Amino acid sequence: MEDQRFLESEWDYCLVLDACRYDVFADVYDEYLDGSLEKRRSVGSSTPEWAYRTFTGDHDLAYFSGNPFINDLGIPLNELKWGASCDYEWTATDHISDLFDVWKTGWDDDLGTVPPAGIEDAFRENQAAVDRAERTVLHYMQPHAPYLSRGKGAKLKQIQKGIKKQEEAEAAADGGSDGALSSLTGSIRPKVEQKLEGSELAQKAGLWLELDKGDLVKNGTRDAALALYEENLRIVLESIADLVTELDGRVIVTADHGEAFGEEGVWEHHIETHIPALMEVPWLEVE
């Protein structure tokens, strides 16, 4: 299996599907897109790790980011108080020329995420930046939870709100504040994870927030989650199928990392957890 070689490969537009497994993508993509599909190995098992290991130089990109970890705030990943939990002294602004925080401007509070239309609206509204940049990246949040058919996503909403509050706190600080996100300490997921630490049950807990209790009882966690995950993937692929007709140039569809559903005891995705479910990603050259 070839390494992803994200920046070394030839493309004009790269559409990144957050947390997209190769196997599920391979099963459904040809219902929406024509092209040549390869399985490639990502450089990271989570967005912070992927970004840190991918963007290491100065890159002339128009980057439309639905993911809060790739942002225009200038806050290093290792200083984010919510979600990253890493030692990476990396900021997107040090490496990417034009960043668009669609995780703020295109956010849908009812869904708890950025829907595909939010990314595409930002792209269409900033054509001058697209024309100016050497290449363009559209970083969609799907198929990453929350699952759009359910709405009211829990996990990503906490990350998004946490980073926004940290930005506001640091902007207002006069030296007496450390920017801590105390308002998040009462939220559901931190309480669960603090109590259960790194256990498999704790990893599942974040996923359970996104699932329907009836589906869990009827189908079990894995089947219920995979069904909604595939539906999320189909939603974003349907949107992408319309967008690519507007793009003039070589278009690639890939992912930053995959998603685990119990493989080797892992659920969701975590930094430096290098198992196939998280490291194997699609690389589709769209015809």
Which keywords apply here?
287 residues, alpha/beta, Alkaline Phosphatase, subunit A, 8-stranded mixed β-sheet, 11 helices, 17% strand, globular
Compact overview of the structure:
This is PglZ domain-containing protein. By secondary structure, this protein is α/β, with parallel strands linked by helices. It has helices spanning 22-28, 47-54, 102-105, 116-125, 127-132, 155-172, 188-196, 200-208, 213-219, 221-243, 276-279, and strands spanning 2-3, 13-17, 35-41, 59-65, 96-101, 135-140, 251-255, 260-261, 267-268, 280-286.
Instruction: Give the SSE string.
Output: EEHEHEEHHHEHHHHHEEEHE
Any idea what the radius of gyration is? 18 Å
Just give the CATH class: Alpha Beta
The major beta sheet can be summarized as: 8 strands, mixed
What's the shape? globular
Side by side, the strands of the main sheet go 1-3-10-7-2-6-4-5
Q: What is the strand tally?
A: 10
Q: What distance separates the N and C termini? A: 22 Å
What class do helices, strands and sheet pairing give?
alpha/beta
Q: Count helical runs.
A: 11
| Residue fraction in strands | 15-25%
Query: Whole-number average pLDDT?
Result: 82
Instruction: Write down the CATH topology.
Output: Alkaline Phosphatase, subunit A
How many domains, in number, for the residues? 1
- The helix fraction, in percent, is 25-40%
State the low-pLDDT regions, or none: 152-156, 176-205
* CATH architecture descriptor: 3-Layer(aba) Sandwich
